[in-house]
């Protein structure tokens, strides 16, 4: 049986992207259930400043249209008033894993 990462409800695509990228990075070091918990904790405690720094680091790895999209997201994030924009469980508790191992297809 393979592991599937899914959500219990629809989470906005930008937040889902953040979650999956960080989950995949955590998965390189930890089993799926620990990677999931660490990613959930990361997202709910992610400050606006730390998010912008994280996006700047990721942007260095990207080219073309993805850079443009990230720039637009950074502008949107700067307008958010909350210091921890994703602390509400709506954003991080929707993500679950099922199964016992992860298969990532590229």
Side by side, the strands of the main sheet go 1-2
Number of helices: 5
Mean pLDDT value: 87
Element order, helices and strands?
EHHHHHE
In whole angstroms, the N-to-C terminal distance is 19 Å
Summarize the main sheet.
Answer: 2 strands, antiparallel
Can you walk me through this structure?
With 106 residues, the chain is mainly alpha-helical. It has helices at residues 13-27, 32-44, 48-59, 65-78, 89-92, and strands at residues 4-7, 95-98. Helix content is 55%, strand content 8%. The chain has a two-stranded antiparallel sheet with strand order 1-2. The radius of gyration is 14 Å and the shape is globular. It starts with a strand and ends in an 8-residue tail after the last strand. The mean pLDDT is 87.
Summary keywords:
single chain; mainly alpha; two-stranded antiparallel ribbon; 5 helices; 2 strands
Give the gist of this structure.
The protein is mainly alpha-helical. It has five helices and two strands.
Secondary-structure map with pairings?
Blueprint lengths: L3 E4 L5 H15 L4 H13 L3 H12 L5 H14 L10 H4 L2 E4 L8
Antiparallel strand pairs: 1-2
Helix pairs in contact: 1-2, 3-4
